[in-house]
Design brief:
Layout: H1 4-21, E1 29-35, H2 37-44, E2 54-60, H3 81-87, H4 98-111, H5 120-134, H6 136-142, E3 151-152, H7 154-165, E4 170-174, E5 182-192, E6 197-198, E7 225-226, E8 233-234
Parallel strand pairs: 5-8
Antiparallel strand pairs: 1-2, 1-5, 3-8, 4-5, 4-7, 5-6
């Protein structure tokens, strides 16, 4: 009978591994979320000097605040900071690391359930890698979708992304009251757990805006809802801010 013990042990280990891999708490989709600074700051009263899409976050589809004891440590991503400041800036507090801390606690600790993202450095570096590979600005420009005072149809914006990437994004807008247009605000590109592109689901997101360590931030929603397919889309250019004496 002793000969069977190693076999039983291996079988038990395999079943245990299979259980971990197929755990209902494990995420199956990553959402690379970009926001348009001009739209964001029109709601939050900040003054962007950025005319390109920036990272909002990399969000797994399951879990929020998965490990409150896993504290953010900026020194662990020190080599990434120059790129973080440019590609993933805190539009409200540019000199603060509070936005990244918020994203790590809320989303990064959940993404870290996967071995490929199981450290702070892996999480942030992968988000930056995917952001640069997607290169949303270049693709929209390639299809002549540029910030301007003219309106685009929703199908023009969605079609540019679908035609190039071969997947359907989730595109979100701000819907001003009584307006005959909607304002382009956020674009989500989705990935499988192996970081290959996949279609995003179409449903509205009410993602709290981070304001660094401001505890009220988690109770404030961004105001981005899925764009209406029949309403013209305004892609606002960067506003120039001139001082008057």
């Amino acid at each position: 009978m002793r000969l069977y013990y190693p076999l039983l042990f291996c079988l038990a280990a395999a079943l245990s591994s299979a259980y971990v891999i197929s755990s209902p708490h494990m995420w199956t989709k990553l959402i690379l979320t970009h926001h348009w600074p001009s739209t964001f700051c029109s709601m939050e009263h900040c003054h962007p000097n950025i005319s390109y899409w920036t990272l909002h976050g990399l969000w797994p589809d399951k879990g929020i605040d998965c490990n409150s004891s896993w504290h953010f440590n900026a020194s662990e991503i020190e080599d990434l900071l120059p790129d973080m400041m440019k590609s993933w800036p805190d539009l409200l507090n540019p000199s603060s690391t509070g936005f990244w801390k918020y994203e790590w606690h809320k989303h990064g600790t959940c993404a870290a359930r996967a071995a490929s993202l199981n450290s702070e450095h892996k999480y942030f570096s992968k988000a930056l890698e995917l952001y640069h590979k997607v290169d949303l600005d270049s693709i929209l420009k390639k299809f002549d979708i540029i910030p301007s005072e003219k309106y685009y149809s929703f199908s023009q914006v969605e079609g540019a992304i679908e035609n190039f990437y071969g997947v359907t994004p989730k595109i979100q807008c701000v819907h001003p009251k009584n307006a005959e247009f909607q304002i382009l605000g956020q674009i989500e590109i989705c990935f499988n757990s192996d970081f290959t592109l996949m279609d995003c689901e179409r449903h509205f997101t009410r993602e709290p805006i981070s304001k660094g360590d401001n505890s009220t931030a988690v109770n404030k929603v961004s105001g981005f809802l899925v764009c209406d397919h029949d309403t013209p889309v305004y892609y606002p250019p960067l506003k120039s801010h001139t001082s008057t004496n």
